[in-house]
Amino acid sequence: MRHGRYPFIVGFLVAPVVLYAYFVLWPYVQTIILSFQQWRGFVAPRWVGTENYKRMLGEDRFWQALQHHGILLVFLPLVTIAFALLFAFLLNVGGKGRGGKTSGVWGSSFYRVVFFLPQVLAVPVIAVLFATVYRPNESGLINGVLLKLGLDEPVGFLIDKHLALPSLIAVLVWQAVGFYVVLFSAGMANIPAEIYEAAELDGANKVTLFFRVTFPLLWDTIQTAWVYLGILAFDAFAIVSVLAQDDGGPDGATTVLGLEIYDNMLQNRYGDAATYGVALCVLSLVFAAFTLRLTRRETYEY
Known about the structure:
The protein contains 13 helices and four strands. With 302 residues, it is mainly α. It folds into two domains: 1-34; 37-294, MetI-like fold (Orthogonal Bundle). Belongs to the binding-protein-dependent transport system permease family. Keywords: Cell membrane, Membrane, Transmembrane, Transmembrane helix, Transport. It is a multi-pass membrane protein. Residues 66-291 form the ABC transmembrane type-1 domain. It is found in: Cell membrane.
């Protein structure tokens, strides 16, 4: 039986592994090779060594994009996780059920649907929606309210270089927070209710319950969420390309590496585009490894 089992298992694994290697791993290898070449799509590629990387490191747009990713890596996970934890805690532990048992606030099932709604919307739909919200005149949702309240001039959320990136971060948070509310709610549902009840019998209030019980027991889920949101911070191309002004503007204030890849592709600079792609891949892997290493801690069992 043992001799016949392994050929049987290998026989089932060969096809998926071959397909994965051809459609996933091989494009990565091709991109890395192309990053050392110059190719405009019309003639055979020419090997240029590290010339593409040197040119990329000498471009201001690369360092602008890198700076923006740094800002996104700090604020996008931090704000999203903070809001998602707050909402998930209220929906699961913030109220009292029958008999005084710990439960979510009234209407928590409805609120879960409301929070998750942005996840079902396509990125272009979200971009068009917030283009209306941020419109720099009285027809914009926010400016319309502010002008009626007595503001002298409308706020240029997407045309002011100091406000453009924070405005895009707000959109990304709005889009992402619902998914992590559901994720954290699933994690909190696995925490035995007896732990909360015992803590409340000892005199713990809701704030103490959150920081002393929920947060430590949910740490592994928070760690995973931070990695996913970091990857989202590197993958902000869709929102930026649709919502930002003047191709990552104003004045490059919202450019990201994904947008630089797209721009180089449009200019038939495929070697340069591949170089930016390799840089984006390496940065994502380094961030994930560093985050998992930095946030590693002893697992609590209950």
